[in-house]
Backbone:
């Protein structure tokens, strides 16, 4: 459930971004990842759709890493403990 919360936080971070061209481009790219939602919720099965894979491919590495870095700081700024999600591979 915490990982789903982090996905929601990522969307919020994107929506709250500034108005520079790079931020707008990053926000737009991340918004396109909505097609991946069925594959990131707990209990999902199967492989991502080609639409999801295409959307993920269109997001730059810098955009994705910056967004994750920003999202990881939000709990501390809200006086919450850091999230620790275990990776299920």
Residues:
């Amino acid at each position: 459930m915490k990982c789903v919360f982090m996905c929601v936080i990522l969307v919020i971070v994107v929506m709250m971004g500034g108005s520079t061209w790079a931020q707008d481009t990053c926000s737009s790219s991340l918004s396109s990842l909505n097609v991946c939602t069925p594959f990131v919720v707990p209990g999902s099965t199967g492989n991502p759709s080609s639409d999801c894979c295409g959307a993920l491919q269109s997001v730059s590495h810098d955009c994705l890493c910056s967004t994750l870095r920003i999202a990881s700081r939000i709990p501390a700024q809200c006086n919450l403990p850091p999230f620790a999600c275990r990776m299920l591979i």
Remarks:
- The CA atoms of residues 2 and 60 lie 25 Å apart.
